Amino acid sequence: MHPVLQVVELLHIIFEHLKPKDQFSCATVCRLWSEVTLDILWYELDDLKLPVFASLLSPLKEEENVSHQENAENSEDTKLSYAFADDPPNANSKDWRRFELNYCSRIRVLRFEGNLEGMHKHMFSPVLMALQRIRPPSSPLLPNLHALTWDGTFYDFAHSVMFMHEGVRHCCMRYGIDDVPKLDLNEFPLVQAIQTRMLSLTSLELEMVPYEELLGPLAELFGYLVDLTSLLIPIFPDITPILSSLSNAKKLNSLQITGHEDDVDNSVVQAGGQLEGDALKSLGVLEIIVQSYLKTLSPFLSCNHLASLHTLEVESCSVETAVTIKNLFQLVPSFAPNLVGCMFGFLENGEECREHFESHRIYSNSLTLDSFRGILQCRGIEAFQLDHPNLHLTNSDIEEIASAWPRLKSFEVYSTLPFHVRDIPTPTLRALFTLTRLCPNLEEVGLLMDTDLFNDSKDRPAYANMVISAARPNLMNLEVGCSEIGPGDAASVARTLSHVCRPDCQLSWADTGRTMMARWKTVEENLPLFSRLHATVKDQKTRISFLEQELETLQERISGYQGACGGL
């Protein structure tokens, strides 16, 4: 065998790109190849591979689960359980030692997703319980595990404990929203398990109902997890104790208070005021769902200064007024002067927005450039997103924003109300040309626009000048929301957008009716054609310009040569 094919690092790079069937073949070549292949095959263990993994110790059998069979309407709904066919070997046997050495020690990542609806038709509890009884209490089942993801129920929590140990660095625990009405910490000692088994965690995600019984123990736990760099926690109404407890986490870079994906009813009501000591000093990312900007966020922002914060994402449970947003944006520069990306949104659906509009709550509080001016002081912004039903921006407003943020890569300001319930000016297509000209790195835009090409300039020369001054097409994603297109204007809009959009630009729009969606579909189909055409024309013009310069240089050389010859 060539010496190159005995380099472990090189073999690992090659084998990890092979299909499983080919990897199995490589495992039979020699011992070295077998070791490398097994390391790759058993690097990660999930639900689908768990039966195969357990069968390496002892053969398995399938059994019908009685509790599920009683509720099943047909055989397809019957829940099956895996169990060992015979009594598995004990911890002192050769088979167990072989199982530990050849397989258990290779697993670095465990992903158990047992409660995902429709994911599997098997239960693994009997197998996990058997493994828990066999393994020596003093040694973990997967000694080299460093990442544990457990997506289960409160009732199978005990199974997850067997995989927890000091070597685990990343832990994600997810539990269903409706598992239990009230939490009994004696039956669900999650905090105690983490505190006694995984104090070296650098990343922790807890997605579950924010039970009141958990708040105190979690706050105490976070005081011990000094190596944390990333933390995701449930949405407790009062997070003041938790923020105070994080003063010892000097390395914490990311804090997400967003809870479970199905938890849509909870929000942070109180975040406290001045942080203790150096709490959150190294924080770079903050994501939070609040009840109100004014009551929850403003007191916290006004009392603290996080110089390391570069990303801020905030969602409110209701549509905020223009005054509230203006006050918030005025606080942001002093709270996070080095902000690079920020997102401000709300959780209400479109129907609720329309109800607010009809009651004049939103219409009388439209957002104008005056609301933005505070946050424009953060000159390093590269990504900005604001969702609000009633944005009132003009072309000149967009130009001022783009001038303040020349580093923009993503700019999304969504107004979710369609034109038929709006009676305020909106930016025209000219705004896209302004954005791409002043922000050369811009790749993503979300903007409600008036697509009438001559709405703000009735003469065609103005349109021609706008096209001539356009920067190179660079947009990769364009979200137009509820923007409307007039009858017969789809081709013209596509041609105009092709001056700022790349041929592979992803165009998306909101559901505003069959007619309007069909027009935007026409734009989507024609946009790549126009973009490629403009790119070809621009390349040809560049080539012609280059040849003209070459010709001019050649003529100068000939003239110089003729002058030199005439002087002889």
Automatic annotation (TrEMBL):
Signal peptide: none annotated. Residues 9-45 form the F-box domain. Residues 537-564 form a coiled coil. InterPro entries: F-box-like_dom_sf (IPR036047), F-box_dom (IPR001810), LRR_dom_sf (IPR032675). SUPFAM superfamilies: F-box domain. Keywords: Coiled coil. This is F-box domain-containing protein. It comes from Tetrapyrgos nigripes.
